[in-house]
Amino acid sequence: MKKKTNSRKAIKKLIHNAGLALKNEFYLETSWIISTIIETRFKSIITRVEGKNPGNGYNLERCVKRVKYLMVKGDQPLLSREIGLPLVDAIRVWKNHRNKILNDMSEKHISKQRFATLAQEGIVLMQELNGSYKKFKSGWIKSIAPESHGQEVKTEDHEQNRNK
Question: Residue 5: what pLDDT?
Answer without folding.
Answer: 53
